[in-house]
Amino acid sequence: MNARLAATALAISLGACATTPANSSDPGAIADPYEGFNRQMFAFNNGVDKYALSPVAGAYKTVTPEFARDRVGDFLRNLESPVIFVNDVLQAEPSRAADTFYRFTINTTVGLVGLWDAAGHFGIERHSEDFGQTLAVWGVDSGPYLVMPLLGPTTPRDMVGKGVDYAFDPLTWTEFDGDPDLDDKIATGRGVLGGLNARVALDDEIKQLNAQPEPYIALRRIYSSQRQAEIRNGRSEDETELYEDLPDFDEFEE
Amino acid sequence: MKRLISPAIALAALSALAMPAFADAKTEAYVQKNASEVLASLNDPSLNADERTAKFNAYMDKFTDMEAVANFAIGKYARRFTESELAEYHKVFREYALAVYEIQLDAYRGEAVVVKNSVDRSETDSIVNTVIKRQDGQDMDVRWRVLTRDGGYQVVDVALNLDGNLIWLGIEQRAQFIALLDRTNGSAKALIDKINGMTTKLEGEKRG
């Protein structure tokens, strides 16, 4: 099923390649030919957040101390290390791959199976990677902007990336003797806890987003520019080029 | 190929040498002095909430060209609004922008502004790169777009560098305002009502 979904998404992605060149002068700009559908999904997701996710996350925040949420966050982030490592390698970033390898080794041992980010204390900072970014590094275009129910903002490239990352994850293929359903239970628990932890952590950002004049546009732009910054691994673009294409200030004045 | 590249490099080097350094020390000093004054107005413990807002607004009016920023935020619609609509829009925009900047800058708890360097876009348009030092050690990379007008300087946009993602606040605002106007057939009233609603919410968020 996942394979079929990935194949469909890949087909959409490749189909869109020719039509949506990257816009380096305005990193917030991204083709949005399905805006009508996307706005409906954005409204749907906002409703789910307001009436279900936010209250549940609020209750989770009340019953769990910050210390416990931090441990859950560190533990879940450590589980992502194998996928990050594979993508570091696929992007030919040996130094970042080494960081991820050392982080996983240190956090799984000294950090007690990942409950503490011990590597961070030693100065090996975490970074994220995913196959969507790897595809971008390989030159695959993002395709059009999409808002998917429950999943939120994405692009065909990032949807394919998610599918491939799922396949890269060793936990996807782990079977436990004696309890064949345990892997599904772990996956569900990981998803639910990860979702609640992320929702609590993003509370301020979601409030700020909803206070914007056009939250849909604000999210689309921040998603696009943030993804581009992640693809560059946080490195700034060349400064002169960065400023060259800024819009003229007085172009609309009479 | 090599034969072509060498002259190209030499030409580029020559043209770089020939370019005058427009963003002189004066532009950088302007940002240093005024941004520091704006931060100081927020950090002054002797001021009550109203005095703090009044002092902050006075500095911002001197520091920025609010009318130009307001026109930039609505792009082509600046020419399509009637005179009275534009005047009303300028008024509500100013109140909104001052409230946004006061709350945002206040939240940074910035202590000092340190100018790093500057880049010229043209003779009258420069970017000054600064770091705002914070009490919690999480320094912020902030860039100021400064225009020279009638011999004076005015800040017209501010960018925050968030992990390599450079966000120009004015450009983001403009994208949203224009999207709202596009959706409402260019209705000045829809935009003005929206801005008023946001300002009311912001006033409740200010530090007491």
Structural notes for this entry:
The complex is a heterodimer of chains A (254) and B (208). Chain A has 254 residues and is an all-alpha fold. Chain A has one domain. Chain A is 63% helix and 2% strand. Chain A has 12 helices and 2 strands, in the order αααααααββααααα. In chain A, strand 1 and strand 2 form a beta hairpin. Chain B is α+β, with helices and mostly antiparallel strands and 208 residues long. Chain B has one domain: Nuclear Transport Factor 2, Chain: A, CATH 3.10.450. Helices cover 58% and strands 23% of the residues of chain B. Chain B is built from 8 helices and 5 strands, in the order ααααααβββββαα. Chain B has a 5-stranded antiparallel beta sheet with strand order 1-2-3-4-5.
What's the topology here?
The complex is a heterodimer of chains A (254) and B (208).
Chain A: H1 2-17, H2 35-63, H3 66-79, H4 81-90, H5 94-109, H6 118-121, H7 131-137, E1 146-148, E2 152-154, H8 156-168, H9 182-201, H10 203-210, H11 215-231, H12 239-244
Antiparallel strand pairs in A: 1-2
Helix pairs in contact in A: 1-8, 2-9, 3-9, 4-5, 7-8
Chain B: H1 2-18, H2 25-43, H3 49-63, H4 66-74, H5 77-80, H6 83-108, E1 110-122, E2 125-134, E3 140-149, E4 152-162, E5 165-168, H7 169-183, H8 188-203
Antiparallel strand pairs in B: 1-2, 2-3, 3-4, 4-5
Helix pairs in contact in B: 2-3, 4-6, 4-7, 6-8
The residue-averaged pLDDT of chain A reads 85
Number of strands of chain B: 5
Helix content of chain A: 55-70%
The domain count of chain B comes to 1
| Shape category of chain B | globular
